[in-house]
Amino acid sequence: MAKTLYLVRHAKSDWETGQADFDRPLNKRGRRDAPDMGRRLKQRGALPALLVCSPARRAIETCELLDLGTETVFNETIYEASAGELLDLVQQLDDRVESAMLIGHNPAMTWLAGLLSGERIEGMPTCAVAAIEIETARWRAAGACPARLLWRDYPRKAE
Question: Does the chain have fewer CB atoms within 10 Å around its N or its C terminus?
């Protein structure tokens, strides 16, 4: 039995608004890329049973524009989290959930993808997705059991 974890970096945000970091919205490119990535996720059948999202505005907007139709919870830990804090969050997921998606921020998303998969991941571009299969029936074993990077996708990746 295995669990599937999808790690998503929020789409491109707008730095020109003068708003606090937490309140920054997506820019035009981010509002274009997120629905496109949502379509690509659906085409792959990458529809998680649970979506855990940062409460930052750009993450919420990314979540809404992905439009996956998945139960969504917001978790403040994701905003400004370290990879270790994200791993703790993953380890606390309900074992009845077979697949989950985290929508959050760099550098933690990149670091967690590398930590779990053992792959050298230089950086996840905005709106990138990393799909990781964790060989366990229990989320609390994530990070201590074998896992592998199934695939990575991002808006400007050639298909």
Answer: C
